[in-house]
Design a protein that fits this description.
ATP-binding; transmembrane helix; 6-stranded mixed sheet; alpha/beta; ATP hydrolysis activity; ABC transporter transmembrane region fold; Rossmann fold
Length: about 575
């Protein structure tokens, strides 16, 4: 429940809307209560007067209670309409705030802090769980507060007529508004939690299925995945059926208590009338008023049943948001240094939960404008070096500086504004070519976009498409080939005039002709920048290229490629292995 209390605190900026919604809800319930109670008394009193004779009819004031009936009927309609508007406005405002808070908390975790998460589960937390929490005020908090306030007022009103009637009404409202909802909560806690977990699992499986459909079909495993999704769906339906049955029990139990309370008012009213403590028509007021009073507590069984699922959703969302970011951000960044030389001294990096460091005792100096190739097999620490430079992961030992300024003293956004990354895994977003290019520079005009496309040697391809820059690229760039997607990422890089260019094996998987064309475009883009390129291949390395070789997170070679391959170190051994493989 702590998570739900924390959720309530998010309503603080909208307290006026919240209080207005609750006030209008109470007013609606009380207007309906007064309408039925007054109508019952008016009808009964009119009947009594009708048989009492001409003198009693002339003395009876028909107009005041008739006006009261019209007033409360109109008030009920207006209050209900206004309450719906205000409640939904408060709900939508909170939903928008929840989404912003969730995204703001999620962004600092990426990518290292989310490495172990399934994309579908994250999607479920950001969409389904937050949508469920968006209903918390409308379907749980507001009905409870309205019921509590209205029940006290209505019981007090009956107590003015008769303390016994007030006590009886309060007892009925407590049973229907507390005991029955608590029973619904207890019965629904487990299936509600199961439904939340099963929805997350099913969404994650569906996302994995869509993203890996080609592999599933190739391996003839689509049937097994479909059975897995069907099993989760069947379990979810079973949980939802149980929740529906519990909801039916809550509604029926509430109606039963309301009916019994109304029936109990009749003999109580008769006894009070016999004792001359109330007039006969007041019996109808008590009976119909009691029936109307239960409108206040009618939503509570369903609200309490939802409470379990909402608590689980709140726990899932806040569990994500409470994770400490991998990198602590400083309050501000120092002024950008005049020179941007990069230096690492004794730097070590270890990912959370890892037994061994990804980088250990790295000593590396890269001068501004220098081109360096980072060589090493998979798992050697090449990508970890990029994560360190981009402040996606912090170093646990040593110092890392750029222009003499410690990387830890620079805010992540400010540091990353110095870097452009071109990698083998290009993120292409569903939308147009223009949309994907503007991610790199939102203020770029068409002329700048075309210049970037020319640099990436993609302009002719875009001109040939019917929509030009406004051509759709499909989900994850489905309408683009691998080479076209890489050149699109290169065009993005051309739009960002940053001093550093990081290349993470951008030609991996390309055919030789496409790779050659890509490298020619890349050469023009790299001019005048500090370039750090990751690779595990020796192709295209010239003798005067500087090569830094990593193995198990340590630098095992650093020098010019020509000298290194002529020596006896790991680069020379790798070069000889490559030459042997080419012979065969």
């Amino acid at each position: 429940m702590r998570d739900l209390i924390r959720l309530l605190r998010l309503y603080a900026p909208y307290r006026v809307w919240v209080l207005a919604g609750i006030g209008l809800g109470v007013l609606t319930v009380l207007a309906n209560f007064a309408l039925l109670a007054l109508s019952g008394w008016f009808l009964a009193a009119t009947g009594v007067v009708g048989v009492a004779g001409y003198a009693a009819q002339n003395a009876f004031n028909f107009f005041t209670p008739a006006a009261g009936v019209r007033f409360f009927a109109t008030l009920r309609v207006l209050a209900r309409y206004a309450g719906r508007l205000v409640d939904h406005e408060a709900t939508f405002r909170l939903l928008a705030r929840l989404r912003m808070v969730a995204y703001a908390g999620l962004e600092p975790l990426a990518p290292v802090g989310l490495a172990g998460e399934r994309g579908g589960d994250l999607l479920s937390r950001l969409v389904a769980d937050i949508d469920r929490l968006g209903d918390f005020f409308l379907r749980v908090a507001s009905p409870f507060m309205i019921a509590a306030a209205a029940a006290l007022v209505m019981a007090l009103g009956f107590a003015i007529v008769s303390p016994e009637a007030g006590l009886l009404l309060l007892l009925g409202l407590v049973v229907a508004g507390v005991a029955v909802p608590l029973a619904s909560l207890g019965l629904g806690r487990r299936p509600a939690g199961a439904a939340v977990a099963l929805q997350a699992t099913m969404r994650a499986d569906l996302v994995d299925s869509v993203q890996g459909m080609a592999e599933l079909l190739t391996c003839n495993a689509s049937g097994a995945m479909a059975e897995r999704v069907d099993a989760a769906s069947a379990a979810l339906l079973a949980a939802q059926r149980r929740l529906a049955a519990i909801a039916g029990f809550g509604a029926a139990a509430g109606l039963l208590v309301a009916g019994l309370t109304m029936l109990a008012m009749l003999p109580l009213g008769g006894a009070l009338a016999d004792a001359h403590r109330i007039a006969g028509p007041v019996i109808a007021l008590l009976a119909l008023g009691a029936m109307a009073a239960f409108e206040a507590v009618a939503p509570l069984p369903a609200a309490f049943q939802l409470l379990g699922g909402m608590a689980d959703s709140a726990r899932r969302v806040f569990d994500l948001l409470d994770r400490p970011p991998p990198v602590a951000e400083p309050a501000s960044s120092p002024r950008r240094p005049a020179r941007l030389d990069l230096r690492l001294d004794g730097v070590s990096l270890r990912y959370p939960g890892a037994a061994h460091p990804a980088l250990a005792g790295i000593d590396l100096a890269i001068a501004e404008g220098e081109h360096v190739t980072i060589l090493g097999r998979s798992g050697a620490g090449k990508t970890s070096l990029f994560n360190l430079l981009l402040r996606f992961a912090p170093h646990e030992a040593g110092t890392a500086t750029i222009g003499g300024v410690d990387l830890a003293a620079i805010r992540g956004d400010d540091l990353r504004s110095l870097f452009t990354v071109v990698s083998q895994t290009t993120a292409i977003f569903a939308g147009t070519l223009r949309d994907n290019l503007l991610l790199a520079r939102p203020d770029a005009d068409d002329a700048a976009l075309w210049r970037a496309l020319e640099t990436a040697r993609l302009a002719d391809f875009v001109r040939a498409r019917p929509g030009g820059l406004d051509s759709l690229v499909g989900e994850a760039g489905a309408k683009l080939s691998g080479g076209e997607a890489r050149r699109l990422s290169l065009a993005r890089a051309a739009l960002r005039a940053t001093p550093f260019l990081l290349l993470d094996e951008p030609t991996e998987g390309l055919d030789p002709l496409t790779e050659a064309e890509f490298r020619r475009a890349l050469a023009g883009l790299a001019a005048g920048r500090t370039v750090i390129a990751i690779t595990h291949r020796l192709d295209h390395l010239a003798d005067d290229d500087r090569v830094v070789m990593l193995a198990e997170g340590r630098i095992v070679a650093d020098g010019r490629f020509g000298a290194l391959r002529q020596g006896a170190g790991p680069v020379a051994r790798l070069s000889r292995l490559r030459e042997m493989s080419l012979r065969f």
